[in-house]
Design brief:
Keywords: ATP-binding, Kinase, Lipid biosynthesis, Lipid metabolism, Membrane, Nucleotide-binding, Phospholipid biosynthesis, Phospholipid metabolism, Transferase, Transmembrane, Transmembrane helix
Strand content: 25-35%
CATH class of the largest domain: Mainly Beta
CATH topology of the largest domain: Tumour Suppressor Smad4
Largest sheet: 10 strands, antiparallel
Helix content: 25-40%
Enzyme class: transferase
Cofactor: Mg(2+)
CATH architecture of the largest domain: Sandwich
Order of helices and strands: HEHEHEHEHHEEEHHHEEEEHEEEH
Organism: Pseudonocardia thermophila
Shape: globular
GO biological process, one term: phospholipase C-activating G protein-coupled receptor signaling pathway
Structural class: alpha+beta
Number of strands: 14
Number of helices: 11
Radius of gyration: 28 Å
Length: about 350
Amino acid sequence: MNEWWVAAVVVVALVVVVAGVLLAVRLRRESVAVEPLQAEPEDRPLPAVVANPLRVEPGARARITAVCTSLGWAEPLWLETTAEDPGTGQARRAVEQGADVVLACGGDGTVRSVAQALAGTGVALGLVPMGTGNLLARSVGVPTDLTSATRVALTGDDRTIDVGHVRVDGSDEERVFLVMAGTGLDAAIMQNTDEALKARVGRLAYVITGFRAMFGPQTRVTLSVDDGPPLRRRSRTVVVGNIGTLLAGIVLMPDAAFDDGKLDIVNVAPKGLAGWIAVLLRVITRRRHGHPRIEHWQAREVVITTEAPQAAQIDGDPIGEVTELRMRIEPGVLVVRVPAGPEPLALPAGRSATELAQAA
C-alpha cells in the first residue's frame, strides 16, 4: 500500500513538472508572437549626430543617446567634425547611411556645414546649440538646454527655410549661410574678438570689441541689387541677412524672414559718436526708414564690392579680408526641426519636406 502511495505521488509530481514545462513553452511562444508588434532595433528611426568635439560638453553623447532610446529611436550614429571637414562630409555620410534626422551639435559654423549637406535632401536638420551665438536656433525657438533641444530634434515639427549662398572674390566655390553674411564692422568684430575674452564673459565680448571698432574709417562700397543699377555708398558695415535678429535679440532687419525667398540688405554709415547713437536708437526702436545713415533693400541676388579689402564674415565666422561678396537666396530647400506647437512658424511658398525628399 505504501509503495503504491509513493508511486502515485511521483507520478503526480512528474505530471506537474511536465505541465509546468509545457506552460512555460506556451507562454514563451505567445511572448515571441507579440514581440513583432514592438519596433525591432533595425526598424527604429535612425538619428545621426554631427558633433564638434571642441564644443561638445562632457557627457553629451550619453545624454543624447539616452533621449534617443527613451523616445523609441535607435542609438545615434555619432560623427565628429575635424579641422579639415567641419561637418559637411559627416552629414553626407549620415544621409547615405539612412539617417532620418541629422543633429548639428556645436556652434553656428557646425550648423552651417551640416546644412550645406542637407539642403535639398528632405532630411531634417536638428539643432543642439553649443556655441556662443546660436542665432538660427534662437530664431526658430529651439531651447539651448541639451536634453530639451534633442527632444525637439526628434519630436518637433518640420519647417522649410531658405538658404543663402555666397561666392568670395570671384571664386567658383559657393558657401552656404543661414543667418547673415557681410563685410565691414560686423565682420571685424567677429574677426577681432578674443577667444579668451569670450570664454570669460560670453557674448559680452562682442560688445566690448564692437565698441573699440566703432570709430574706424568708413569705406566706399558698390552694391548691385538684382538687376538694378550699381549703388555707390560710404559704409561702416554692409550686412546681408536671411534672418534679421542679432545677438541679445536686437533686430537689425525687421522685414527679414527665413522663409520669404528674399535676402535683406542693410548698409550702415554713421559719422562719429552722435551718428552711432542715432543709428542705435533707430535699431532699438525699429524705426529704420528715412534715416540717411541706414539703408535697406530686399533682393534675390546682391553683389558687394569694396574699394579696399575689408573683413568679411559668414554666419559669424570670419573669412579674412575680401573685396567682393556675391550672394543669392535659394528658397525653401532646407528642412529644420522646430518646437511643435499650435501656431507653427510661417512656411515658404516653396516645396514641402516630402517634395524635397522625392526630388532628392
